[in-house]
Amino acid sequence: MRTVTGLYDNYDDARTVVNALEDAGISSDDISLVRRGDDTDESYAGEGAATGAGIGAVAGGTGGLLAGLGLLAIPGVGPVVAAGWLVATVAGAAAGALAGGAAGGIIGSLTSAGVDEDTAHVYAEGVRRGSTLVSARVEDDKLDLARSIINQNAPVDVDSRRAMYREEGWERFDEGNPDLTEEELARERDRARNYRQL
């Protein structure tokens, strides 16, 4: 299987991509969606959200992958709303790290799935700053279709986003960075919107 991934500044675009991938016959088991949690999500209360290893159900969609959205804490990102194969991999890595085992979190999960490490850092930082990540594992015969679906719904240009982050001295995703406040996230969204227009 090959991995196709897109980062979206607009959550509705990401949801559209997930639905289109499912409509194209790609199993929900092979699709993931990860976005930062916000004030519109249910409470993060509960042991699972606090440890980063558990998922609690929240409303998110009518069926398929979106019906299985849950809450999870990812080191360096904070609380996220997520579902799919990537989430299970990240949760496993987080549980292992808490138990003194192998670390890796979201970067390790993405690179294990075949995403270039430099690009994985941009994706992880993008989620940290409020974007939504959609990733699908597909067989070769559906690779072009999945790429087309990912690309037709305004994904972030990874090179442009990397350049925007590096203008402020960013080099790579750091799990030790503090969570961003809602005000900081709003500034990041505005900055990304304006940067694209340059």
Instruction: Indicate the low-confidence ranges by residue numbers.
Output: 41-62, 93-103
Given the structure, what is the number of helices?
9
Shape: globular
Spatial separation of the terminal alpha carbons:
37 Å
Mean pLDDT: 79
Q: How would you write the strand order of the largest sheet? A: 1-6-2-5-4-3
Question: How would you spell out the order of helices and strands?
Answer: EHEHEHEEHHHEHHH
Structural class: alpha+beta
- The oligomeric state of the chains shown is single chain
How many distinct beta strands? Answer: 6
Helix content: 40-55%
Strand percent estimate? 15-25%
Rg result: 16 Å
State the major sheet.
Answer: 6 strands, antiparallel
- How many separate domains make up the residues? 1
Domain General stress protein 17M-like: 5-69
Protein name: General stress protein 17M-like domain-containing protein
InterPro entries: GSP17M-like_dom, Low_temp-induced_all0457
Pfam family, one: YflT
Summarize the structure in words.
A hairpin with a 3-residue loop joins strand 4 (70-74) and strand 5 (78-84). The chain has a six-stranded antiparallel β-sheet with strand order 1-6-2-5-4-3, with helices on both faces. The protein is built from nine helices and six strands. It has one domain (2-196). It is of the alpha+beta class. 40% of the residues are buried. Helix 4 crosses helix 5 and helix 5 packs across helix 6 (117-128).
Record the SSE blueprint:
Layout (H helix, E strand, L loop, with lengths): L1 E7 L2 H13 L7 E6 L10 H5 L4 E2 L6 H4 L2 E5 L3 E7 H14 L6 H8 L4 H12 L3 E7 L4 H9 L6 H9 L15 H15 L2
Antiparallel strand pairs: 1-6, 2-5, 2-6, 3-4, 4-5
